[in-house]
Amino acid sequence: xxxxxxxxxxxxxxxxxxxxxxxxxxxxxxxxxxxxxxxxxxxxxxxxxxxxxxxxxxxxxxxxxxxxxxxxxxxxxxxxxxxxxxxxxxxxxxxxxxxxxxxxxxxxxxxxxxxxxxxxxxxxxxxxxxxxxxxxxxxxxxxxxxxxxxxxxxxxxxxxxxxxxxxxxxxxxxxxxxxxxxxxxxxxxxxxxxxxxxxxxxxxxxxxxxxxxxxxxxxxxxxxxxxxxxxxxxxxxxxxxxxxxxxxxxxxxxxxxxxxxxxxxxxxxxxxxxxxxxxxxxxxxxxxxxxxxxxxxxxxxxxxxxxxxxxxxxxxxxxxxxxxxxxxxxxxxxxxxxxxxxxx
Length: 344
Fold this sequence. Notes:
Number of helices: 0
Shape: globular
Helix content: under 10%
Distance between the termini: 7 Å
Structural class: mainly beta
Radius of gyration: 19 Å
């Protein structure tokens, strides 16, 4: 049976009256008591020194007032990622740095459903080479208990993706080699499009799933006007050369989740780059379904299609309640939350 959508509900986590001008890059988890925890970065604008990490909790009564969960005086914070271990321990990863090439990863930990948190620490002490751990999308736990964090680095000349691997519950991390990639100059398109070539800087911000024990896959944002894909046969230690998977990409973030049925749901902007540019419009924002491990996709729900920017989705599923939960940036002014009841 293919997954079917039964009911949808859209809410704004952040309304017009707020304590910051611009939120972006949200993340969410569902807690064991049923509450939902969401986080994002917010301030006057991305990369400004007043940008902090904000958090809100949704209880049965609705979303609580957002509060600052991480702040570093005079330095921008970026891209929070929430991850809950199977024993309930929660990790909040985020980036700190004046610019993306300079940022590094910090982490805070909670053992009481997000009520209290440890002091921030560097995820990999002394490693400030562009950020370790998850860069935008959620980490996943493999069938053997290994945690994989989808990671990437951005320099002025190249973008590259990798995974960080933890076999001790997130206490220590080992960096995989970069995902192999064949690059070519974006402006040199005097031959037929080749799905095995990436035009421009490269690939970043992977999102992961495991299809069978040890068989892991990623979809990636790219500068090539296409979503790229890479596959691993050894639990993420090595990856095949990345290739365009047949879906467009506007050089913006995307996220995928694997349902209990084995199907995949992708949240993304189904648009490519504008001619001659590295970026495309961040509307519409849609969900797509795949029943064949990402070989083909069918759009199943349009979340936004008005003019404006709707971007950086995060998506998770609750297999017991049969729900998809989605957050994303709304015009760089608010954070939106969707609860989507399904059957699968």
